[in-house]
Design goal:
Blueprint: E1 6-11, E2 14-19, H1 20-28, H2 33-42, H3 48-62, E3 73-80, H4 87-107, H5 109-120, E4 124-130, H6 133-145, E5 150-154, E6 166-174, H7 175-182
Parallel strand pairs: 3-4
Antiparallel strand pairs: 1-2, 3-6, 5-6
Helix pairs in contact: 1-2, 1-3, 2-3, 4-5
GO cellular component, one term: cytosol
Family: Belongs to the PTH2 family.
Catalytic activity: an N-acyl-L-alpha-aminoacyl-tRNA + H2O = an N-acyl-L-amino acid + a tRNA + H(+)
Length: 189
């Protein structure tokens, strides 16, 4: 039975419902529809991010460029969706998070290697939705407990929101580790 949130897709094992919102998010990333459906099915329809990661990883597996044991890095931005920010404001805050985290990485000798590896392997970036300030702080604490570098943006309060508001959390590290922190969050759309 189909609902307005889901569309069915035939698989070799039978019928699997594919979340239409996730499917659209994947198509917005220029992933072909059939490949997007396949990725959603094979990742259990958990999230668009998981399916996108699966899809892009499968492309890399088809065209390996060197060491099979290579660890891929990514930078993730979690936007505080509780705040009334317009798209331009969100874009600016994500920019602050990217620059702030990158500067932090370059400042400390122990994290320069992370910045270099991230940059060397495509500088992958993903923007996700966080529920509220508490959620961002919890994610930051989890990331820090895993020794992942983070940067939290606090707004100056000159435009749309109050000074000191936590707007965006950025996290960087090996993709597998970062996914343990943010893997269940929805893509920003």
């Amino acid at each position: 039975m189909e609902t307005c949130d889901q569309e069915s897709s035939e698989t070799a094992e039978g019928t699997m419902n594919v979340n239409v919102d996730y499917l659209q998010q994947l198509k917005d990333l220029d992933i072909p529809e059939e490949e997007a459906k396949k990725a959603l099915i094979l990742t259990g329809n958990v999230s668009a991010e998981e399916a996108a990661i699966f899809y892009f990883d499968s492309l890399e597996d088809q065209n390996p460029e060197g060491d099979e044991d290579q660890n891929y890095y990514k930078m993730v931005f979690v936007v505080n969706m509780e705040l009334p920010m317009g798209m331009g404001k969100v874009a600016a805050q994500v920019g602050h998070a990217a620059v702030g985290l990158y500067q932090l990485l370059l400042k400390e000798s122990k994290t320069r290697d992370v910045a270099c590896k991230w940059d060397e392997y495509g500088a992958k970036k993903v923007v996700l939705q966080g529920s509220n300030t508490t959620h961002l702080l919890e994610l930051q604490a989890l990331a820090l407990s895993m020794n992942l570098p983070t940067y939290m943006v606090q707004d100056a309060g000159r435009t749309q929101i109050a000074a000191g508001s936590y707007t965006v959390l950025s996290v960087i590290g090996e993709e597998e580790c970062v996914n343990k922190v943010t893997g269940k969050l929805k893509l920003l759309n």
